[in-house]
Specification:
The chain has 107 residues and is an alpha/beta fold. It has one domain: STAS domain (Transcription Regulator spoIIAA, 2-Layer Sandwich), CATH 3.30.750.24. The protein has three helices and six strands; from the N terminus they run E-E-E-H-E-E-H-E-H. Strands 1, 2, 3, 4, 5 and 6 form a six-stranded mixed beta sheet that branches. Strand 2 and strand 3 form a beta hairpin. Helix 1 packs parallel to helix 2. The longest helix has 16 residues. The chain is globular. The mean pLDDT is 92.
Length: 107
């Protein structure tokens, strides 16, 4: 398990590779300042051979369009599944408004 915090943001993430699929828990605000480090962390997991990722969104307080863009681009780069676990209402509304609700499995 590792904890990463991009500099100068209200964002951190916990990555637990002891599960299959790997579990990623982003915490705080997934906005423009956190999007690139978040995408890089997910890309690193994919490159390490983790085909499936459970993204536990229960710790998100805020997500803007750059966060949504990360989800779409990461999913496009995967051969496996990016599952959104416990997304807050804000994220569900964004997925609905952008007509992306059917694109991601949600638990």
């Amino acid at each position: 398990m590792s904890l990463a915090r991009p500099a100068d943001t209200n964002f951190s993430m916990v990555v637990d590779t002891s599960f299959d699929p790997v579990v990623v828990l982003p915490v705080g605000d997934l906005d423009m300042s956190a999007a690139q480090p978040f995408r890089a962390a997910l890309a690193k997991l994919i490159e390490a051979g983790h085909a499936d990722i459970d993204l536990d969104l229960s710790g998100l307080h805020f997500m803007d369009s750059t966060g949504l863009d990360v989800l779409v681009r990461v999913q496009d780069s995967m051969t496996g599944t990016l599952t959104l676990v416990d997304p807050p209402d804000l994220v569900r509304r964004m997925l609905d408004v952008c007509q992306l609700s059917d694109r991601f499995p949600v638990r």
